[in-house]
Write a structure and sequence with these properties.
This protein is mainly beta and 137 residues long. The chain is built from one helix and ten strands, in the order βαβββββββββ. The N terminus is likely disordered.
Length: 137
């Protein structure tokens, strides 16, 4: 199985520099995937990695706000297949690991193809969605 990702590395690095003052990425996530949007950086890793079609996996994530942005109050993880207009068959169980740190357990990509993974971040001013597209073969 191969996993291909579409993200802007330059924009993630730029936000990471701004977020560095707000929080630190835990060592366990130092080599994790980085996605950003609307002033928030999400760093995450999956276990197991790589993701296998038809196999359950967990996601551990840390959320860093950019300078001037409020910390998140909570987070959820979901995934859909835009080309097929459906999502996962299972809802992951969310656990808070500490300020800005979460684990989603029990995700499952039941078929190969393009998946859109979204992290929904609860903030003082509403919900911010940060995501990326993954192709799972």
């Amino acid at each position: 199985m191969t996993l291909r990702v579409a993200v802007s590395a330059a924009s993630a690095v730029a936000l990471m520099a701004g977020a560095a003052a707000a929080c630190e990425i835990p060592p366990a996530l130092a080599d994790g995937r980085r996605v950003e949007s609307a002033g928030y950086l999400v760093v995450y890793r999956t276990a197991p990695a790589p993701i296998a079609v038809g196999g359950r996996f967990d996601v551990e994530l840390a959320v860093c706000p950019a300078a001037g942005k409020a910390p998140v109050r909570g987070a959820t993880v979901d995934a859909t297949m835009p080309e097929h207009r459906h999502g996962m068959n299972y809802r992951p169980e969310m656990t808070t690991l500490g300020p800005g740190r979460y684990r989603a357990a029990g995700l499952l990509f039941h078929m190969p193809g393009l998946w859109r993974v979204e992290f929904k971040l609860a903030t003082a001013s509403g919900t911010v969605v940060v995501g990326e597209s993954l192709t799972v073969d």
